[in-house]
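task queued by scheduler; priority normal; single chain, no ligands, no partner chains; default sampling; output format set to structure tokens
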Amino acid sequence: MLVYGKNIAERILKDENLVEKIKFIYTDEVFFKKNGYLFSENLKSKIKIKRNRELDNLAKGVHQGIIIDMEDYQYISLEKVLKGENNKIIILDHILDPHNFGAIIRTAVAAGFNAIIIPNDRQVLVNSTVVKTSVGAVFDIDIVLVTNINNTIKTLKDNGFWIYGTVMNGEDYRDVNYDGNVCLVIGNEEKGISKLVKDSCDFLVTIPISSKIDSLNASVAASIMIYEVVRSRKSG
């Protein structure tokens, strides 16, 4: 997996666990001279100095003179998540836009959520764009890859979680109790939550919006719900 940009590079190069996953570092001379302090001695053999045009060909976005080739993202098992003291989880029901995924990850980390669960089909996985959009926050939260969301919801319920699905015609999200173990379900950008998933939820909640707008962006809706959980717990 290629990740790029100065902020992401700093995040990775300052984390010993992430440094071990680095295969190669591609950088131009300008970045290397200005930021040589970032590279420990044992990384020198992995550094490849490239022309800026060569970096342009490698990256799909703004690289700022640094691209890191590292091992693919390692997902965690649901069983391991449930063994920890986790009480705030998000399920993404087939989110397709990597920018939405990355933004949701960043908000979830900022708000202290413990894990994000995604299906392994019809869902964007952790890639370069997700890493960049999350500004490296993807490395600060557990992400679980599952084969079936409904079975996962059942497992969460068996472990004491309440499931809150976001829909267009549910109860006002501000009138709902979010005490206990919470799992928020955020639906696909166009179709929302699937019927089977909707039927599995304990609560269906809605964010009221003006009639001038059809719906909210998935990452915006997720942010509102995430911070409503945090707010309600502080005021409760």
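post-processing summary
- The chain has a mean pLDDT of 90.
- The longest strand covers residues 161-172.
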